[in-house]
Amino acid sequence: MSVNYGSKRIVVGAHYGLRDWLSQRITGGLMALFTIILLAQLIFTRGPIGYDLWAGIFAAQWMKVLTFSVIAALLYHVWVGMRDVWMDYVQPVGIRLALQIFTIVWLVGCAGWAIQVLWKI
């Protein structure tokens, strides 16, 4: 004879919880580290901070790659956050899907713009 105590919980949803939480922490940490590196370069630079200094900081290929990696992390960070907001607060499926598509298109456009700015395409 089998006895089950309590109610059986019915789990629904996309089950993104731990993965999303972890990705938000990792991308946030990467962005914080990048900010510290950039601030250190600015703090330890002599002279006025102008266009030449900014262009010099981002002239090295490694800095362009690092910057784009951080931008990609930022875009993923934004996507996870906005997707969760749309899933939690927008109930009509059609409107939620439209907002998610708009968010994806906007973020891909931002990625293209970042590539254009960093590598002057």
From TrEMBL:
Higher taxonomy: Bacteria, Pseudomonadati, Pseudomonadota, Betaproteobacteria, Burkholderiales
Role, per record: Membrane-anchoring subunit of succinate dehydrogenase (SDH).
Pfam families, per database record: Sdh_cyt
Binding site for a ubiquinone: 89
UniProt GO MF annotations: electron transfer activity; heme binding; metal ion binding
Gene3D superfamilies with a match to the protein in the record: Fumarate reductase/succinate dehydrogenase, transmembrane subunit
PANTHER family, per the entry: SUCCINATE DEHYDROGENASE HYDROPHOBIC MEMBRANE ANCHOR SUBUNIT
Native source organism of the sequence: Variovorax beijingensis
InterPro entries: SQR/QFR_C/D (IPR034804), Succ_DH_anchor (IPR014312), SuccDH_FuR_B_TM-su (IPR000701)
Transmembrane segments: 26-44, 56-79, 99-119
GO (cellular component) term, any one: plasma membrane
Note describing how the cofactor binds: The heme is bound between the two transmembrane subunits.
Keywords: Cell inner membrane, Cell membrane, Electron transport, Heme, Iron, Membrane, Metal-binding, Transmembrane, Transmembrane helix, Transport, Tricarboxylic acid cycle
Subcellular location: Cell inner membrane
Membrane topology: Multi-pass membrane protein
The keyword Transport appears for this protein: yes
Name this protein carries in UniProt: Succinate dehydrogenase hydrophobic membrane anchor subunit
Gene Ontology biological-process entries: cytochrome complex assembly; tricarboxylic acid cycle
Keyword Membrane: yes
Positions bound to heme: 77
